[in-house]
């Protein structure tokens, strides 16, 4: 393949799809990129490869670049989130033991009511629930803290959130190290396939429009390589558009299933892409319309208010000043580059770069620079609205 | 004489772990222990409270260690953090070799460097061994396929081994392919026809 070589790292997950499709369907090549992909064994290693310049771009947990900008968790290099790669896609599961206890207490799993599910989980837990997440800075962790926090459980007194790499989650559950987990596709389905757990809630039941992964690069790289930045963003955006076409789901599943990418059955991947999930080893099926989004409702637009939400949650967890953290985080989500680099491709560009997060309970048409945009519902399960400019906070 | 550093090596493979421990012993008088079981990794490390943790970059359990940077509250930073904001080249060398180190904050760089240098050298050796092993395996498999193809040709055309190999080579050159690919095609085709 000809073109400028650009290496991107990813973790073998369904939401790495935009990068994989950008390569496999030639969107990278059309932008003059020889887009090569490297699977990483862990988020920390992927982050370090990016920071140390071994790769140019990475599929990254949305909170990681924000946490780094706030000086949390080592590696103080500044990253940019060029765009959101995927919205939603996490799933919460409980061990078969805990699921049985919840059922015995009369809980009927409708896979959508976060309040009822959370109360049932708390009631069925004899000790403080121990929940596995893939990484300390992840939407998985943020959603759990938000969800159980709103139901009166605060960490670390009432609950333990532990880092467990998804491939080891089943093992940790069998060893009795964790009672529940929050993971990304396809690991929830795999836990069900393996018979170690049952799915309790999609992440979208907690926050209906949560930025899950971002396309991350080094801040100095966007500065020194504006042209490559542009080409990369365009290739990935077009891949996301392709993925949003339901007619392409089967092809996408087959490509993602390959040994060099996810190396799991295409059937399992297809469940995750269509949001039709088998939630228990007994074969119960549930359908979630907004389970995982790559494009719809301007899903790839990096809202600065999303970055501010993440920062405000991280600040609360770690004792940082909230307003300062939010201001710092806004600069990490590069909606300016999104506008500049994707405008002529026909990407819908919202009129503003920030919104009240959680204010939409229905699809809502909004003003844009260019054309129609129907925003998808983004409500939190407890109906709270996050104002990125709280009263008394200095505006930037 | 400063007190010896306590080092934890996270490594599943016993032989590899022993080799790493040997290298570290050569680098100085340290208190070294190995954790080979990934379950409850963060808890076990917290209990031991080491100065340095060494872990294979290819290990997915590395993410469990990231928690240590937060364990006692990120504002305190007393437990562990990634080495080393001050020495990029050392960190880079470590990453290239495939090892990462978590070091207690405040430990002096000149005390860490010999340890990291030893670990880096050892991991480079692992990488070379792995590459060599893969190359040997591949060569062996290729030879097996070529031998089978030669056998097929010798039987089908009543020719000697040298002539069979020459024929494979000529075909490969004419088609701009590798000998092993031509041999593989022949073996596959023969399998279909038999």
Q: Care to describe what's here?
A:
The complex is a heterodimer of chains A (396) and B (194). Chain A has 396 residues and is of the alpha/beta class. Helix content of chain A is 38%, strand content 19%. Chain A contains 16 helices and 15 strands. Chain A has helices at 17-24, 27-30, 43-51, 63-69, 96-104, 114-124, 139-150, 166-174, 187-193, 219-224, 226-243, 249-257, 266-274, 304-318, 322-330, 335-342; strands at residues 4-10, 33-39, 57-61, 79-88, 90-95, 130-133, 160-163, 180-184, 197-202, 211-218, 276-278, 285-287, 292-293, 364-366, 373-375. In chain A, the strands form four sheets. A six-stranded mixed β-sheet of chain A has the order 2-1-3-10-4-13, sandwiched between helices. In chain A, strands 7-6-8-5-9 form a five-stranded mixed β-sheet, sandwiched between helices. In chain A, a hairpin with a 6-residue loop joins strand 14 and strand 15. In chain A, helix 1 (17-24) packs across helix 11 (226-243). The model of chain A has no long low-confidence stretch (mean pLDDT 93). Chain B is an alpha/beta fold. Chain B has two domains: 5-107, Response regulator (Rossmann fold, 3-Layer(aba) Sandwich); 135-193, Orthogonal Bundle (Arc Repressor Mutant, subunit A), CATH 1.10.10.10. Chain B is built from eight helices and five strands, in the order E-H-E-H-E-H-H-E-H-E-H-H-H. A five-stranded mixed β-sheet of chain B has the order 2-1-3-5-4, with helices on both faces. In chain B, helix 1 (14-27) packs antiparallel against helix 6 and helix 6 (109-157) crosses helix 8. The longest helix of chain B is centred in the C-terminal third of the chain and has 49 residues, at 109-157. Mean pLDDT of chain B is 83; it is low at 72-84. The interface between A and B is medium-sized, with 30 and 29 residues.
